[in-house]
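Appendix B. Raw example, untouched.
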Amino acid sequence: MILIIVSGRSGSGKSIALKTLEDIGFYCVDNMPINLLPKLANTLTKQQISAAISIDVRNIPNNTFILKNILNHLSNFFTYKLLFLDANRNTLIRRYSDTRRLHPLYNKHLILENAIDKENKLLQPIRSRADLIIDTSDMSVHELSETLKIHLLGNNKNLKIIFESFGFKYGIPINADYVFDVRFLPNPYWDPNLRTMTGLDKPVSYFLTQHIEVHNFIHHTCKYLTLWLPMLESNNRSYLTIAIGCTGGKHRSVYITEKLTNYFRTKGKNVFSRHLTLKKK
């Protein structure tokens, strides 16, 4: 029996996560009072049913001691995973503006922005105990669904390696296990002919291949990751997220991400790539 507790900030995708889990065979309960968790988990265990329980800010006790006791009680009798979905403030504001839905903490004395900030503070105790945190700020519905499947179905498969490019100007991805900074490499941005292109375009690729430091970085990064991958794979983890960052996330980080992805794919690894800044366009 597998129990997954799904929590996170309102607007971050909890409903999508629950729907995805239901599609892959989990019995799902939405917005369940957390004090009922032990009783439900006990019933599901007897019936050998894997379940996913969604908990939002309204169902979390104000007393963190109560929350701690409930989760500790669960861990004494069950193996559970706590999934926390997050998104940055601006993304949440935009999503609420697009859907015109009311935030669960919204009232006439609390505007949307303040409701989002208050919820973030209230959720910190449960976020701090999360086994997996997924930042959905730059994800589509489909990408969130696929990301969940990669993370949650990976236990019976090989380690999933996710290489992702990003721009430091937008912030470091919070879900990254490793972060590599490639801002020291020659920058195609300063060539007017390459500025509007990306690391996926051949002229940018050609520019970067002309610099020995680019080749050296790729070589030594592959060597470093190859050295430690066996230990990561034997550590019973299902996924590994490696973020590659440059200034804007369009040229160098994209090119390096693709090169690393292709290298480890040729080595038979289960590899995926995504480009966070390019998806913003």
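End of appendix B.
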